[in-house]
Every structure is written in C-alpha cells, then in structure tokens.
Design a protein that fits this description.
The protein is of the alpha+beta class. Helix content is 42%, strand content 15%. The chain has a single domain, classed as L-fuculose-1-phosphate Aldolase (3-Layer(aba) Sandwich), CATH 3.40.225.10. The radius of gyration is 17 Å and the shape is globular.
C-alpha cells in the first residue's frame, strides 16, 4: 500500500472507531505499519478524529522519529512501535477507552471467552497499570504480545487490539467491547461468566483460520 493510502486508511479506521462509540473527545489512537518500509502511520495527539485530514496522520519510524506530518504524533507512539517490533504478523493497532471494556480494566479483571467472537481472539487479559505514553507501558504490552496475545485491557486505562490489518484490529475492538457489555449485564443480573470450553474455542479458532464462517 502506498503511504498516502495508508494514512487515509488509518483516518477512515479512526472515524469508524469514533462512530462505533469506542472513543470520545480526543481519547484513543489508531496506527498501521507499512510492511515494505516499516514506517508507522499514526493518529496525532490531542485532536478529535472527525477534525482530521489524511495529512494530519503522522508517519514515524521505528525509532519514533517523525518522518512526515505536520502534527505531533500520539503520545502512545512508544506503545505502537514496541508492538510492531515484537510481532512481524501485527500491522495495525486500535487503542480505545470503550466504556464496558474499560470497566473491566478498572476492576483489573480479565474478560473470559464468553462469546463466540471473544473465543476467536482468546481471553482478554488485563495488564498492570503503567503511565500512559511511558516506556514502561510499552514494555508491559510488548511482553503481552510476545506471549501470543492480540487483545488486552490496560488497567484503569482502556483497551488495546492488534491485528494483521486495520479491519481485523477494529473488528477485535468492537467485539471486545460487545463481550464486555454482555459480561456486565450478566454480572448485574447476578450471573457468572463461564467461558466457552477451551477445546471448543480452539476448534473455532482453527476453523476461522481456514476461512470458515462461524
């Protein structure tokens, strides 16, 4: 993908994140990595997504230096570049503060595989709180993705979803929020959160990899 096209794709995804109710105001960020150059296109700092134009999407390199763009990149650049450095298969990241999933993050509680979409991504683990934008937060998330995870709760902070492309990262963020909402309703009704059995969840993940609809 040409870099101008990548910047447009990041902006489109950011607008979808906002329209889906996963962020408000200037919270959250979106990025994608160009597999050919290794450059990362990321949303800028402290600007609402619906005020952005493609040229506002900033290009940074693996050292977090701005290569192109008139804006300051998101303060979470350390997080994004750490994830891309840790996993070659990850090329897109969506970071949100969606309310139901963030409620679980505040409780410091994982979201088990209670729905089919959650089972396809695996248990959403809650990572310990580190200051937003810090190298310490980047390290915690890097360790998480190195252990094979792609979706995480950030304690008292929000949600991070990764994927091989922007669509899959956004879909994961939507399904994590949906699963968290279902979980909150179940808990409010006095119920429990029994996960889908792991052997069956594994079968579903294998079927999904082969392109079978579930």
């Amino acid at each position: 993908m040409r870099l101008p096209d990548l910047r447009e794709a990041v902006l489109r995804t950011a607008l979808q994140v906002q329209q889906s109710g996963l962020v408000r105001g200037t919270s959250g960020n979106v990025s994608a990595r160009d597999r050919e150059t290794g450059l990362v296109a990321i949303t800028p700092s402290a600007l609402p997504f619906d005020d952005l134009a493609p040229e506002d999407i900033v290009l940074v390199d693996v050292d977090r230096s701005v290569v192109e763009g008139r804006r300051e990149p998101s303060s979470e650049v350390p997080l994004h570049t750490a994830v891309y450095g840790a996993r070659a298969d990850i090329a897109a990241i969506v970071h949100t503060h969606s309310p139901f999933a963030t409620a679980f993050a505040v409780m410091n509680r994982d979201i088990p595989e209670i729905t089919v979409p959650l089972a396809l991504n695996g248990r959403v683990r809650c990572l310990p709180f580190r200051l937003p934008g810090s190298d310490e937060l980047a390290l915690v998330i890097k360790e998480g993705v190195q252990r094979g995870g792609t979706c995480f709760l950030l304690q008292n902070h929000g949600v991070l979803c990764c994927g091989p492309d922007l669509k899959k990262a956004l879909d994961a963020a939507v399904y994590v929020e949906e699963g968290a909402q279902v979980a909150c309703y179940v808990l409010a009704a006095g119920g429990e959160l029994p996960p889908i059995p792991e052997d069956l969840a594994r079968q579903m993940r294998e079927a999904a990899k082969k392109g079978k609809a579930l």
